[in-house]
Write a structure and sequence with these properties.
The chain has about 525 residues and is mainly alpha-helical. Helices cover about 75% and strands about 0% of the residues. About 35% of the residues are buried. About 5% of the residues have low confidence.
Length: about 525
């Protein structure tokens, strides 16, 4: 009896062990299938990235058909529907387009119905609406039901009761997003049906996020009532963000300009008025430009005036560029004038250059004159470079002349070189001569070397001599090295001699090296 019991226990253990081995084998098979499915999905996504829709569809169909138990089936169904949708858009055969779109919608249906907890369900519902809209437009009216189903809760336009379920939703609720996508689709299919629903939402719903998003959909419509609705929201909506959106959409519509001009005069928060300025600038008419100019000249809010100037500056037409130049003399605020100089400096017209030159010569504010010189210097044309040279003799302010010497030095023209040499030889302002000497260090000219070395020998000013050495030291030409050696042989001032030896050493010139060895060998 004990023997029989022992056999029974042994058989039971064998059976349990067999089940355990079987379960392990199944688990291994499942892991292998999952890995194969993952590799297929990764490859399919590479094809999607490359927009090879046909190969992507082929790969994803293989995955869906052969790996039904993998953990990647919901991902694969979504991307299959997406790839089929994209593939259909590239086909010329209309019948084939419709066939593939219908098949794509069915794949999305399967995902939505069979994988209700999948993270891809919300995306699938949005894509399904787009497919349903296109199929409906091709005469397949039965597909409208997918849009109607997505709009449940928004049908009642007589009151807000039908929207109560949305008020408790989070702002990022995917169902809310889906309803708005469906409304957008319905608007493109049947404006008369969708428009009153959207109007009800933007006028009465308590959720500002929903009003804002519904407003975006509403603005896709060409309905004549859109402008009055936008005006009302821009001036009276309790939420500032909704107001900003309404102002933006008014700017995007040609017929919205008058409404924006009226809204600007309403007692709105400054933030909203600034937003209106941006929207007005989106309109390229003369009326819009005149309003911006008026704000720039006369508005009581400094920031509004600055913003208007900025928005005027981004308009590229010739009339605007001329107006911006004329605007300078009608403004007295130094900060605004400074901003205008920058804007005028970005204008490459002759009128703009003449204005900058006038400011540089005649403006009563030294800072404005210096800013004008800076803006002139960044213009790269030949005419401007010559004008900068001519400007020097018409300015008496030492600080501005100093700035101009630097600007002239940036020009490599013959006229600029001659002017710098003239300053070095003849300018009554010693600091101007010193600055010109330093700038001439970059000019490769034998004449310049002769002028500098001659000046070195004639002056007793140690400071000036040091600047001449520095300037000549920057010039690595044979002529410069010869003159430095000649000066070094005669120089008795130890400080200056050290400077000469330093710059000769920096030159790495053979003649300089020979001279330095002579000094060492003494």
């Amino acid at each position: 009896m004990k023997y029989i019991k022992s056999i029974s226990v042994f058989l039971a253990l064998c059976l349990i062990f067999s089940f355990f081995l079987f379960a392990q084998e199944k688990e291994q098979e499942k892991k292998k299938e999952n890995e194969k499915a993952r590799v297929l999905l990764v490859n399919a996504k590479k094809m999607i990235y490359q927009k090879d829709w046909e190969k992507a569809v082929e790969a994803l169909k293989s995955l869906v058909e052969n790996y039904q138990k993998s953990g990647y089936l919901d991902d694969s169904l979504y991307w299959l529907g997406y790839s089929m949708y994209k593939l259909s858009a590239n086909l010329e055969n209309v019948e084939k387009q419709l066939e593939i779109k219908q098949e794509a919608l069915e794949k999305l249906n399967y995902l939505i119905n069979q994988y209700t907890l999948s993270s891809w369900v919300d995306d699938a519902k949005v894509l399904r609406i787009e497919l349903a809209k296109e199929l409906y437009k091709k005469g397949l009216s039965e597909y409208k039901r997918y849009i109607n189903e997505s709009l449940k809760g928004l049908e009642e336009v007589e009151g807000v009761e039908g929207l109560e379920d949305l008020h408790s939703k989070k702002e990022t609720d995917p169902e809310l997003e889906l309803k708005l996508v469906a409304l957008n689709a319905l608007l493109s299919m049947d404006q008369e049906e969708a428009f009153p629903i959207l109007v009800k939402i933007v006028n009465e719903d308590k959720n500002p996020k929903l009003r804002e998003r519904a407003l975006f959909v509403l603005c896709q419509s060409k309905h004549p009532d859109v402008i009055p609705i936008l005006i009302k929201l821009a001036t009276r909506d309790p939420d500032d963000r909704v107001k900003e959106r309404a102002i933006t959409y008014l700017g995007m519509r040609e017929e919205g300009l008058d409404a924006l001009l009226d809204a600007y005069n309403v007692n709105l928060a400054l933030k909203l008025k600034h937003r209106i300025i941006i929207s007005i600038s989106m309109n390229k008419s003369k009326k819009a430009l005149d309003k911006l100019l008026d704000i720039a000249k006369n508005d009581k809010d400094q920031e509004a005036r600055e913003r208007a100037i900025t928005m005027i500056s981004v308009r590229g037409d010739k009339e605007t560029k001329n107006k911006i130049v004329d605007l300078y003399d009608s403004i007295s605020d130094p900060k605004l004038k400074d901003r205008l100089i920058i804007v005028i400096g970005q204008n490459k017209s002759k009128k703009a250059l003449d204005k900058l030159l006038d400011i540089a010569k005649n403006d009563k504010n030294p800072d404005a004159r210096e800013r004008a010189i800076t803006m002139i210097s960044v213009r790269g044309d030949r005419e401007t470079k010559d004008k900068v040279v001519d400007l020097y003799d018409s300015i008496s302010d030492p600080k501005l002349k100093n700035r101009l010497i630097f600007v002239i030095g940036q020009s490599k023209s013959e006229k600029a070189r001659k002017k710098l040499l003239d300053i070095v030889k003849n300018d009554k302002d010693m600091k101007a001569r010193e600055r010109a000497i330093l700038v001439l260090g970059d000019v490769k000219s034998d004449e310049m070397i002769e002028v500098l070395s001659d000046m070195y020998l004639k002056t007793d000013d140690v400071n000036l001599k040091g600047k001449i050495i520095f300037s000549m030291g920057q010039n690595k030409s044979d002529k410069a090295i010869e003159k430095l050696i000649e000066i070094a042989r005669k120089e008795e001032n130890l400080k200056l001699k050290k400077q000469l030896i330093f710059w000769l050493g920096q030159s790495k010139n053979e003649k300089a090296m020979k001279f330095l060895k002579e000094i060492i060998d003494k």
